[in-house]
């Protein structure tokens, strides 16, 4: 072994789905699979489909609980979503899972024309959203929300944790039109149980107040936002956190109300800064005639490196340390 | 190539069934020409080519309630090729699902009959076609979903040979066989013509039958303008479709129909083949005359044979 390796151990790319949970953090196993299995008990219309990624999207939990309501479509994403549309036409409520890259990039036409245009209740479940794998651009759906935001009728949900996912699933099933869920799978951190919070489809929620800075965040970046807010307390910086898990339709009323003052405004998203939460917030501000600066924390507009997730999150600015440093720099 | 399977209907379609379907096909052709004339354009060549298939389905094979297009028990007809809507509108009028008088609105503003078929516009239009290669994937889900719900309705997906270029068609072909969707029948209109020219020159699809067979389908290949042959193929394809109380878990069926663009109107049959056929204003009446003359000549010949 080289001395360099002994002195500075290089982190390794982990399994395809790397965990972004911190060591020792409270987690919940496969919250999506369990929530879907439970929702299916209450709603006999619910069925599950996947394109050869059942184990990797926690759909296998549902398949085990309801084998007669699970449909394996093979590694065929166009068939997956076309068939999901057909099942919805037959009166069922399908949840169809694959990776976000394949849903957004390979199957867009099928989701758009067969599901969204007829406004069918098909629920698209996309694994590995944003930067949640170290496998590089083939697996990193850094632009999935940008792709999907232009699609009429589609509701987009970017959950933070196991609480969000468990509470979102029955609401997605109950809402009439199509939805896209940015899935977090495996051992998913449990964060929002510490707050007076409930997931409500279409609503943003203020998780904590703060006088100096306001974070508007979605997805796993809400977890980082809360951690960064706690870290900034030590620097005597008081940070509010607004969690906006529904990207579309966006809760402009809540977010604009929080951005009305002169606090430093920061958006945080596990997605490219093009076409995601930052631009959603920015366009809402402009349309309301609000002129103010917004600092984006998000992935750069480039194809990302492969590697270990902590390395990449730090490199691209999603880590707590990078967020804290950015806020302190902004505050001068 | 038909399978030796039990069928409640006689193997050869009776003369009366054939005659009824041929009469319906004639009316569908006449109505398609009428719609083309009103619009001054349209995919008339495709409609004329597919009229015999559509007539077999709507005048003989499909179960539906004209007064209730959403009836749960209806057989589902999925038109992948949105531009064939002109033919399907004519068939839906023939079936009594839309009023004949409405056909003159084809392709006009605020019409329920847009140039490219869409489910949100037209009663009896099950899906929005047009983006080719979608229909069979939806058909697979519909067949799975209806079977799951215990609904024995049959599912027919009409697609064109051009759609065999699309990879999604083959994803669906494998999926249908894998899930043993015995109530699913695909009908492929092989008019050997695509937007850029002859299918053989655009992307070779033959041997088409072997491809479907390799995917696990029951394959029939017929002259798609021969009503007797079509009826026989549909009878055979549907006989395994599980509508006799079975589980609907057989191999899906495909009927490959070799058709002629512009069929029934010699002026168009002989014209240079084009995806979007130009017809001059003065030619519409010639087309209708030729259609009527051809029909009269065939009927006269049939009458003579019966007399002899």
Name some characteristics of this structure.
A: alpha/beta; Rossmann fold; 7-stranded mixed sheet; 5-stranded mixed sheet; 13 helices; 19% strand; B: 308 residues; alpha/beta; 10 helices; 43% helix
How is the secondary structure organized here?
The complex is a heterodimer of chains A (332) and B (308).
Chain A: H1 3-7, E1 27-29, H2 31-42, E2 46-50, H3 59-65, E3 70-72, H4 77-89, E4 93-99, H5 100-106, H6 108-116, E5 123-127, H7 144-149, E6 155-157, H8 162-174, E7 179-182, E8 187-189, E9 205-208, E10 213-217, H9 220-233, E11 239-243, E12 246-248, H10 252-258, E13 264-272, H11 277-287, E14 295-299, H12 309-315, H13 320-331
Parallel strand pairs in A: 2-3, 2-4, 4-5, 5-7, 6-7, 10-11, 10-13, 13-14
Antiparallel strand pairs in A: 1-8, 6-12, 9-11
Helix pairs in contact in A: 2-3, 2-8, 4-6, 9-13
Chain B: H1 15-39, H2 44-61, E1 76-79, H3 85-94, H4 135-148, E2 155-160, H5 167-178, E3 184-190, E4 193-194, E5 197-198, H6 199-202, H7 208-214, E6 218-223, H8 227-239, E7 253-258, H9 266-269, H10 283-307
Parallel strand pairs in B: 1-2, 2-3, 3-7, 6-7
Antiparallel strand pairs in B: 4-5
Helix pairs in contact in B: 1-2, 1-3, 1-10, 2-3, 2-8, 4-5
Structure commentary:
The complex is a heterodimer of chains A (332) and B (308). Chain A is α/β, with parallel strands linked by helices and 332 residues long. Chain A contains 13 helices and 14 strands. Chain A has helices at 3-7, 31-42, 59-65, 77-89, 100-106, 108-116, 144-149, 162-174, 220-233, 252-258, 277-287, 309-315, 320-331, and strands spanning 27-29, 46-50, 70-72, 93-99, 123-127, 155-157, 179-182, 187-189, 205-208, 213-217, 239-243, 246-248, 264-272, 295-299. The longest helix of chain A has 14 residues, at 220-233. Chain B has a single domain (15-307), classed as Thiamin diphosphate (ThDP)-binding fold, Pyr/PP domains (Rossmann fold). Chain B contains ten helices and seven strands. In chain B, the strands form two sheets. In chain B, strands 1-2-3-7-6 form a five-stranded parallel beta sheet, with helices on both faces. Chain B has a two-stranded antiparallel sheet with strand order 4-5. The radius of gyration of chain B is 18 Å and the shape is globular. The A-B interface holds A 47, 68-69, 71, 73-74, 76, 78-79, 81-92, 94, 109-110, 113-114, 117-118 and B 118-120, 126-128, 130-131, 133-134, 136-146, 148-149, 151, 167-168, 171-172, 174-175, 178-179.
